[in-house]
Amino acid sequence: MSKKIPMRQCVGCGEMKSKKEMLRVIRTAEDEIFLDATGKKNGRGAYLCPNEECLKKAIRAKGLERSLKTAIPKDVVENLTKEMEGIAAR
Q: Could you tell me the domains of the chain?
């Protein structure tokens, strides 16, 4: 019997991919929004492909706001973009 692979949908492009391939953006109880590299932190999560295009699409189409059920301030968007660049550079 094969093990089930958890699948998640990117809020940017809408593609289904395995959870391991995706980046998790979370909103904590304190309304902080950041990338969750471990994928295990508590909070409302949304998944993105690890590229800037999907992040831009998710922000433009308000997919990230809808998933996290909150408005996303500009400074948070800039931080997410910087973090995404850091991860993409690895």
A: 7-89 (3.30.1230.10)
Instruction: Retrieve residue 72's tokens.
Output: 């996303």
pLDDT digits (tens, 9 = 90+) for 19-49: 999 999 999 999 899 888 888 899 999 999 9
What would the two tokens of residue 7 be? 């699948």
Residue type, 90: R
Both tokens assigned to 87:
């991860």
Three-state DSSP class for residue 56: helix
Backbone phi and psi for residue 30, each to the nearest 5 degrees, phi listed first: -85, 10
pTM for the model stands at 0.85
pLDDT tens digits, one per residue of 3-17: 888 899 999 999 999
